Amino acid sequence: MKRSLASRLNSATVHVGRALRASADTHGLAAEQRSALSVIYFAGPIRMGALAAAERVGAPAMTRTVLILEAAGLARRGRDPHDERAVLVSASRKGAQTVAKGRDDRVRRIAAALRVMPAESRRRLRASVGDLETLIETLEAQARGEAKAIA
To answer: Top-level CATH class of 27-114?
Structure first.
């Protein structure tokens, strides 16, 4: 039975993610905590509500996650200088180093795997990256409830 492109892409993304997590140093954090730390690092300082929305969880769940990250020394909370009622979350130096190290480790592992692939396979992957990035943008826009047309 021939699988659809959508089915094959779904399977590929699941397996790539699983393979990259298999030997990753998780620093004792659950997947949702690592994900939140990554959002904080790349989008921060970020309001708690925006962080919860980005992670698609409620405010109480995100508050618990941020408390765990704070206790681990990976994030810190502070007041928004433009709105004293709002809380901003930012990555600590240790949190920034943790995210950067995780990214560097994944990139290194991907590069090593690419080196053992035939040149023609690497060429095809290189040629498809832009289309994958467009697919990701479309999926993210749909998740935000935006209709995204592809030109």
So the answer is: mainly alpha
Rounded Cα–Cα distance for residues 34 and 142 (Å): 24
Domain positions in the chain: 27-114, 117-151
Per-residue pLDDT of the chain (151 residues; tens, 9 = 90+): 788 999 999 999 999 988 888 766 677 888 899 999 999 999 989 999 999 999 999 999 999 999 999 999 999 999 988 888 888 999 999 999 999 998 999 999 999 999 999 999 999 999 999 999 999 999 988 888 876 655 5
Residues in the chain, total: 151
Provide φ and ψ at 133, rounded to 5°: -65, -40
Which residues, at least 6 apart from 148, have a Cβ–Cβ distance to it below 8 Å? 137, 138, 141, 142
Q: What is the pTM of this model?
A: 0.78
